[in-house]
Amino acid sequence: MSVELPADTDAVQTPEEIADLLGDLVIGREEHLNAPGFVIKPDTVVDALRRLRDQAGFDHLSCVTAEEYEDRYESIYHLTSYDDRTQEVSIVVPADKENPVSQSANEVFRTADWHEREAYDLIGIEYDDHPDLRRILLPETWQGHPLGQSYDQDQPQVVPLREHQNPLLEDQKADNDSETMYLNIGPHHPATHGVLHIKTVLDGEQVVDLEPDIGYLHRCEEQMCQNSTYRYQIMPYPDRWDYISAGLLNEWAYARTAEELADIEVPEYAQIIRTMGAELCRMAAHFLALGTFALDIYGDFTALFMYSIRDREKVQNILEELTGQRLMFNYFRLGGVVWDLPEPREEFFEMTRDFLDDLPTALEEYHDMMTSNEILQVRTVDTGVLPPEVAKSYGATGPVARGSGIDYDVRRDDPYGYYENLDWDVVTEDGCDNFSRLLVRMREVEESAKIVEQCIDLLEDWPEDERNIQSNVPRTIKPDDDTEIYKAVEGAKGELGIYIRSDGTEKPGRFKIRSPCFSNLQTLPEMSNGEYVPDAIASLGSLDIVLGEVDR
Amino acid sequence: MSSDNQQPFVTDSSKVGTETREARLSGQDNRFNSRLREAFGSSPFILTKFDKFMNWVRGSSMFMLQFGIACCSIEMMHTYAVKHDLDRFGAGVPRASPRQADVIIIPGTIVSKFAPRMKRVYDQMPEPKFVIGMGSCTISGGPFQEGYNVVKGAEEVIPVDIHVPGCPPRPEALIYGVAKLQERIANGESSPVTVKPYELEEFGDLERDEIVDQLAQEIDVEDLVMRYNWADSP
Ligand code: SF4
Prior knowledge:
- The complex is a heterodimer.
- Chain A has helices at 15-22, 45-56, 112-122, 169-172, 221-226, 247-262, 268-298, 304-323, 345-371, 374-380, 388-393, 398-402, 410-413, 434-460, 516-521, 524-528, 533-543, 547-551, and strands at 26-31, 36-40, 60-68, 72-80, 88-96, 101-103, 126-128, 157-161, 181-185, 197-203, 206-213, 332-333, 336-337, 484-490, 495-502, 508-514.
- Chain A is α+β, with helices and mostly antiparallel strands.
- Among the domains of chain A are: 15-128, NADH:ubiquinone oxidoreductase Nqo5 subunit (Beta Polymerase, domain 2), CATH 3.30.460; 246-478, Cytochrome-c3 Hydrogenase, chain B.
- Chain A has a five-stranded mixed sheet with strand order 1-2-5-4-3, covered by helices on one side.
- In chain A, β12 (332-333) and β13 (336-337) form a beta hairpin.
- The radius of gyration of chain A is 23 Å and the shape is globular.
- By secondary structure, chain B is α/β, with parallel strands linked by helices.
- Chain B folds into three domains: 15-45, no CATH class; 54-186, Rossmann fold (3-Layer(aba) Sandwich); 200-232, no CATH class.
- Chain B contains eight helices and seven strands.
- Chain B has helices at residues 13-25, 35-39, 44-60, 71-80, 115-124, 136-140, 171-186, 210-215, and strands at residues 63-65, 93-95, 103-107, 130-134, 162-164, 200-202, 224-228.
- In chain B, strands 2-1-3-4-5 form a five-stranded parallel sheet. Chain B has a two-stranded antiparallel ribbon with strand order 6-7.
- In chain B, α3 runs antiparallel to α7 (171-186) and α4 packs across α7.
- Chain B is globular, with a radius of gyration of 19 Å.
- At the A-B interface, β8, α5 and α8 of A face α4, α5, α8 and β7 of B.
- β8 of chain A pairs antiparallel with β7 (224-228) of chain B, so a sheet runs across the interface.
- The site of iron/sulfur cluster has 12 residues of chain B, from α4 and α6.
- Chain A: Residues 302-552 form the NADH-quinone oxidoreductase subunit D domain.
């Protein structure tokens, strides 16, 4: 498959310039809190997106949100730019209530493929010219679209246990020479990092066709959030999206979106605590990625896996002191955090410092045993190659994008928290292969350590009477009816975005999660087709997906 | 299983207790039957001793299935690894194949698409086999119980011997659960099935109703299917 390349353009577009560019495609205007919204007709999606991508530099389709209103369906394409994350625009595509059909954006952005399949699955919008419009999260025999308005949750369903068929078998009937083998990997398999199913067609040991089949952990996270109140009830759920200890990073995604939506200030002191906690989480998440990667590549259950768990235990101890929980922290509140650092503070600082002091030695150990290990090098250097333009077309973010040399990090490009005031670097590697992604994660641990250290210094000297951990937030939060916002933070795996539309009550009218893993996983076929099976497994490991976030 | 007969969810704790007690009093229940036991069947004296010995062996060396589902599996990994080291209790050998495992820890939320596959994995394990439900999700669906796609507890699908509550349970709690299970196995006890599990059955055997008629085009009569009834489960 070839990827359409966007043309080079100069950045910074005012809403008026965008309106001019889209010209008569625009049939209405909307104002989202994060970006201007342009309403277009359902059959002009490709045209509009291509213009924006080629002539205005909007080369990152971050998310596609679909929803159903009383009188219409709507797909929203949230576009931004890899070069300048603060440039945002929403393309709103209404579709007919009776017969919701809309043009697919797959031609312009590859990532639209899965996003639109999800919209079809959960909401029921059909996309014209979509290459493969099937259910993606729910079983294929599911009846109804659960996030649509007319769905009856009480109706019974029948779920089949099917043998999966070789999709290339038909082609081979004519030509008996070549023979392919069909291989199911997962949904219960140690190398899939959870319940992922990969349909693989092999020719000898080479992968001819590979298709991730997801949805084995679709826990209705969006429905759960739509049924919960902004103030307290939603916050525990983000912990369970990316559950590899990345809880605080996810909580921040929700906190950032809701705070902007309800116009809540966060005291500086709380921002520093948040930043410190979030970076600790990132380290813990990356440690596990390293450990399981070694496990995938050369079955290292004894040394590296154990080392990484050892370091995770240390981080988890710190986080437990801070939040009271090992994994599901529920520590952020809208407007701040729930409590201050644990007393005695000196002990907490000492404990964290000890960990940071030991870190260089630990990392050296990792480098000795992993990156300078010949087996690992042979298996990862120049395998699973993901060129930057392909990565962009699939909306890849996080270490996956940075391993392909894309200098993109929401922490720096659309600053939040206290990151702006600290001294740290965005890590990129341009090998585009499995090895680069591994290196990016390892170097990011160092950067995170730098950030944590600076935060601790700040917190230590913070005057005692200015330790304000939460601003005044009303008991119930009811944003104005029909306010829409899409905001993202840098999670452990990449850009974790949330779209909320309020409906005037204290619960969101639509809550949509943009999961980085969902987009990253989509690149797997690109990296694996034509490679050997073990390389495909290595690529999967290097993507570092977590199924709770892929399926939500 | 049909939707209209109510599932016998036993809320009366004395009843559960009785069944467990009965199993305990009668010594062995049939989940413990093995070929060896049949072979030794002619001599009752050796049989009792041998059973006791076998149970002790079983409890002291358990092969766990390496099986991760959701968030709880992270804590499960920590339980296997340094610091908590489940191996100290003779239960730390994770096997990747269900055919080599005696214990399956179910660490996470089960959703409709996964339930039939989990049943399959369970069916592939050799007897006698034991199940540890880890986390609230395997008890009731946990925080996701209201979800349209979520199975409300592992017991809807397979029988569970020990429930470890928590969201997620700490590794210590899981170790306690495993130790309790070992104790029970050594005593030759197993838990009765309290909820009628969802069954994998051929599509043609399902009771005909609206949904079955609707799907008749899509599913062959011989296909194995599982009926999923969000509203009817306890
Ligand atoms: S019980 Fe809690 S931690 Fe465990 S799988 Fe369910 S939601 Fe995750």
